[in-house]
Every structure is written in C-alpha cells, then in structure tokens.
Write a structure and sequence with these properties.
Layout lengths: L1 H30 L3 E3 L1 E17 L2 E4 L5 E6 L6 E2 L4 E6 L4 H33 L5 H30 L1 E4 L2 E4 L1 E3 L4 E6 L6 E2 L12 E4 L4 E8 H4 L7 E6 L2 E13 L4 E3 L2 E15 L10 E2 L7 E18 L4 E3 L2 E7 L5 E11 L3 E6 L6 E3 L8
Antiparallel strand pairs: 1-24, 2-13, 2-19, 3-12, 4-6, 4-11, 5-10, 6-9, 7-8, 10-12, 13-17, 14-15, 14-19, 15-17, 16-17, 17-18, 19-23, 20-21, 21-22, 21-24, 22-23
Helix pairs in contact: 2-3
Length: 374
C-alpha cells in the first residue's frame, strides 16, 4: 500500500514539473515574438493603370483614286514632312471604262460642233438685230458649257490612262502625299497591290499609318475601385516593361465616363500625357539619366499618385489590429513589458500605414503571433 502511495506521489510531482516547464516555454515564446520599430518616412497612395504607349493621333493614309500601287517613295520608319509624296497610284480602268470615256468624248465633240454652228448663226442674227440679246446669250452659254464638258471628258480619260492631268487650275496626279509631318509607322501595301478608293460608301484601303512621335501618351485602364479617387491633373509615374531602367513622368489628362469589361473585371480607360522619359545606364548607375526615345506599342504600367505624405511616422500595416474604426497595436517597453495601445492611423499604401497619434518614433511594436495550425 505504501509503495502505491509513493508511486502516485511521484507521478503528481512529475505532472507539476511538466506544467511548469510548459508555462515557462509559453512565456518565453510570448516574450520572443519579433518586434518592429516605429520609423519616419514618406508614404504614397497610388492607383495602378495598365496599358501601352501610343501616339496621341495616328492617321490612316488612303487614296481617293482606284488602281494599283505604281511606286513607293517612303517606307516604315521614315520621317516625312506634310505634303511629301508617299506613293503613286496607277489607275487600272477596265476596258469598258476606257471605251465609255472615249465614247463620251466623241459625243461631247458632236455636241460642241452643233452648238458652235448654232452659236455662229445666232451671232450673225444678233449683229443684224434680228434676235434679242437674251437669245444670243442663251446660245453662247450653251456653247461654252458644251466646251467645258468636252474638256472635262478629255481630262477624265487622261487621268484614267496616265494617272495625271494638267488643267488651268493646276496639275492633278494620282500621287498620295503625307497629310501631316511625322513618321511612317506601318506600310500595308507593296508595289502592284490593288487599291480601293475612299468614298462616301466605302472605307477604302489603308495604305500607311502615320503619327507625330513627339506627341505620345499612355493609354490604359484603372480598376473601378480606384477610379473614384482619381482627378485630372494628378501626377503619374510610368514604368515600361521592356526597359526596367527607364523612368517616365506624366499627367493624368482624361478619365473615361464609361467603363468596359476586361477578363470579367470592370475597368475605366484613362489617358496620361507623357511629360518626360529618361533612362539610366545599367553599367554606370551613378551617371545622369539620358532622354529616352519612346516607341509606339510599348507595354507600360502607370502609378497615379493620389496622395503623398512626407516625413511621417510609419509602421507595417500587418502589426495593426482593426476592430471597426479602432486600430490597436501591442507596444513593447524597454523593460520587456507589453501594452495594448489604441492608435490613430492615416494614409496607407497597403504595406505601411501612417501613425497620426498614439506612437512615437523609435518605439517597438510587437508582431502578431502566427496562427496555430490545428
């Protein structure tokens, strides 16, 4: 019986020792939770826009004359001044169109001959005072109109055959000229390709595209969550995916009023005017940046600066516990004791949060304990 009592007493002592060890371990674990220091710095609230670099205005060059491409005077990448020849169109009329144009000239010639003889008779009668001045003027006007129609028919035939014609008002040819000063971005045709003209009932063949590459903008989309906080005129920082060393600055110039769907997300298009673009030499980080030549089509991200605070108290947002409108942190004092403290927070960038009141620079704030896996 005594032996049993001794065994039970020993088991009780061991249980007490184990409990004390466990409680000691828990206390050390609580005391050894990592801490972060309250620091000062700048914090920026941004909205992300995803898009591309594009010319503000891109022009499609088209022809008003049907035919085939005879000659090319400019290629993709060339800079041309407004009015410079880009290409020449060789009219390619059908045999029926040529026959109709020739027969039209013959008919106009017959009409002119008849009206000329009639006008000469009317002139003789008018000189003898046998007809009124109105009848004479009517005959003269009909003759002049017929002569003009004959001349127009001849010019039309010359344009169909040669692609150029000289008139009293100037020289007309089937040469397509640059509508603006700028670069040829893309050439869609080659010599010999057919050309459909631009008319009121058809769009016509796009021959080339042109743009002023000194006037580029960023066009992209912003998530609907952020668009309500944006205002025109906000500063933006532009990053180009293909050029990690490039930095660009811009100004938000347009925010669309209507959203669109992209991959089951609601986004709003925006346009950012590019103010400056520079690039640093990766081999010499200390060298001053040099101007960057942007190209149309670069994929880019733009961080639109909504609000910025400088030299404010900052802590990682992960250490803050929110309960409704109340924010709490666990402060660790120099003697190792802890205190739960209510703080007032301000601007957040999703990683750090501004501390308006409740903490001072240099204080230690305890990290949250890791959740226990059950």
């Amino acid at each position: 019986m005594k032996r049993v009592l001794w065994v039970m007493a020993g088991l009780a002592v061991m249980a007490v020792v184990i409990l004390l060890l466990l409680s000691s371990d828990n206390g050390q674990a609580a005391e050894t939770l990592p801490t972060v220091t309250v620091t000062r710095g700048d914090i920026v609230d941004r909205a992300l826009a995803v898009g591309t670099i594009e010319p503000r205005v891109e022009i499609s060059v088209k022809s008003q004359v049907a035919g085939v491409v005879r000659r090319l005077f400019a290629d993709a990448g060339d800079y041309v001044e407004a009015g410079t020849p880009l290409l020449e169109i060789q009219p390619n009329p059908t045999p029926q169109e040529l026959i109709d144009a020739e027969r039209r000239i013959e008919l106009r010639q017959l009409e002119v001959d008849n009206l000329r003889r009639e006008f000469e008779r009317q002139q003789q009668l008018f000189e003898r005072r046998l007809i009124s001045e109105q009848e004479y003027e009517r005959a003269r006007r009909a003759y002049e109109e017929a002569r003009l129609q004959l001349q127009a028919a001849r010019e039309q035939l010359a344009l169909l055959r040669e692609g150029r014609v000289q008139t009293e008002s100037g020289r007309f040819e089937t040469v397509v000229r640059a509508p603006i000063s700028g670069y040829v971005l893309e050439k869609m045709i080659e010599v010999g390709d057919p050309v459909v003209p631009l008319t009121s009932y058809q769009e016509g063949t796009v021959l080339m595209t042109m743009a002023d590459m000194n006037d580029l903008v960023f066009r992209g989309t912003v998530d609907e969550i952020d668009v309500g906080r944006l205002q025109e005129g906000m500063t933006a920082q532009i990053k180009i995916g293909a050029l990690p060393q490039a930095q660009g600055t811009g100004r938000l110039s347009k925010i669309w009023l209507k959203a669109k769907k992209e991959e089951n997300a609601t986004v709003f298009p925006v346009e950012i005017e590019i103010v400056e673009a520079v690039i640093r030499d990766p081999r010499d980080p200390e060298a001053p940046p040099r101007p960057l030549v942007l190209r149309a089509g670069y994929s880019a991200n733009a961080e639109i600066i909504i609000e910025k605070r400088e030299n404010v108290l900052l802590i990682p947002e992960r250490v803050v516990t929110y309960s409704g409108d109340t924010a709490r942190v666990m402060v660790v004092h120099p003697d190792g004791t802890t205190e739960e403290r209510i703080i007032q927070t301000g601007l957040s960038d999703a990683l750090h949060v501004e501390v308006v009141s409740g903490l001072e620079e240099g204080m230690k704030v305890q990290e949250k304990p890791l959740p226990q896996i059950q």
